[in-house]
Backbone:
């Protein structure tokens, strides 16, 4: 049987964390209640297996024991009868799921074998401790850098801005982002042209998200806000973390340009509801 765990009891899932085998920090940021999401477990008092949903990623993560036969046998029906109807009811048409470690891959492939399951690789980039901190690239004329917090306290941080939209998706509130996150914006007149922000955070790892308005791409803005945000994270004695699809050459190039190096890949799966 699979049951939803109340947020106030998310700490019951923390014993499932294995730093040496953890492929993604996103579900652990949710379990630590820094980012919004939900958790479904095999046992609400002492879970051995968990399914975590991320509001920001709009996808699921499987954690804990991949050999939990009772949980795995219930998983397909749980998605069909509970997850899919609820998701489609609020407009979702796609299900994305990955495992907390590689042992989950054959389980996912078996459980969802009757779906039109596809897979792709995700790449994770980390900051090597021996490398010097990235500098601040020169911005094109007419652009300037500003911290995300500073921008949020002005009209440029309005609800329809690039930054505000990111915070609404990945954080429970602007106050939560200001307390636990960080970021930089590239401003052009009265517009946020590009932003790099902390999308997820565990105790010592900060996952970074980035976005640039279409009309301002290929101007080096992503590199500028990315380098500034990496600098800010390192100044806090924390570790920057960058996750993108393996075929996203632009994102990979930006990660490399701000001093991050590819650390590993993992498999992600998806199918249409």
Residues:
């Amino acid at each position: 049987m699979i049951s939803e765990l109340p947020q106030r009891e998310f700490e019951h899932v923390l014993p499932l964390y294995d730093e040496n085998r953890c492929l993604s920090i996103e579900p652990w940021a949710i379990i630590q209640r820094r980012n919004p999401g939900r958790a479904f477990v095999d046992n609400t008092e002492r879970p051995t297996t968990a399914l975590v949903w991320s509001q920001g990623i709009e996808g699921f993560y499987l954690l804990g024991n991949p050999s939990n036969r009772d949980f795995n046998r219930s998983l397909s029906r749980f998605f069909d009868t509970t997850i899919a109807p609820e998701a489609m009811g609020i407009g979702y048409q796609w299900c994305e799921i990955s495992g907390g470690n590689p042992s989950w891959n054959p389980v996912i492939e078996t459980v969802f074998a009757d779906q039109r399951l596809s897979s792709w690789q995700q790449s994770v980039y980390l900051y090597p401790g021996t490398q010097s901190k990235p500098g601040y690239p020169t911005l094109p004329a007419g652009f300037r850098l500003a911290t995300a917090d500073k921008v949020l306290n002005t009209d440029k941080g309005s609800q329809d801005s690039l930054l505000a939209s990111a915070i609404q998706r990945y954080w429970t509130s602007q106050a939560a982002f200001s307390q636990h996150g960080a970021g930089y914006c590239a401003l052009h007149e009265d517009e946020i042209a590009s932003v790099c922000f902390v999308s997820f955070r565990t105790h010592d790892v900060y996952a970074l998200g980035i976005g640039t308005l279409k009309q301002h791409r290929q101007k080096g803005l992503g590199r500028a806000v990315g380098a500034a945000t990496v600098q800010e994270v390192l100044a806090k004695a924390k570790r920057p973390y960058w996750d993108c699809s393996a075929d996203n050459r632009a994102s990979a190039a930006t990660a490399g340009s701000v001093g991050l190096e590819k650390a590993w890949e993992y498999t992600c799966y998806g199918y249409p509801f």
Q: What stands out?
A: Residues 69 and 254 are 42 Å apart (CA to CA). Helices lie at 26-31, 69-89, 105-111, 148-152, 162-170, 174-180, 221-235, 249-257. The mean pLDDT is 92. Residues 69-89 form the longest helix (21 residues).
